[in-house]
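quick one if you have a minute, typing this from the bus. below you get a single protein, a line of residues and a line of whole numbers that encode the local backbone shape. could you go over both lines and see whether the tokens make sense for that sequence. anything you notice is useful, everything is just below.
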Amino acid sequence: MSQGALFMYSRPEASIVPQDTTSGAARFLAKRGPGLHHIGYAVDDVEVEARRLSDQGLRRVDLGPKAGAAFFYPQDIHGVLTEFVPFRTPGVRVHAPGFGETDVPRP
């Protein structure tokens, strides 16, 4: 049976199943087993919401200048990796294919 990591957005939830053993999701599953990977929130303005959390002392993961999303380290949010993505019309992909297959830098 395939194992996957659950990605939650306000609605709907998304499940991913790694296609290889080297992706970030595959390493997460190997280390922790199946379960919640991160919570994502679709927001009107990613930078405004990211700045709000940063101003409260949460550390943002550096994804580079054109990421289009914002992640915050799980150590700062009760052990849960948290993501902001731009709100899109239902049915439209949140991430481009291949997004998230790189390592999340460690603090």
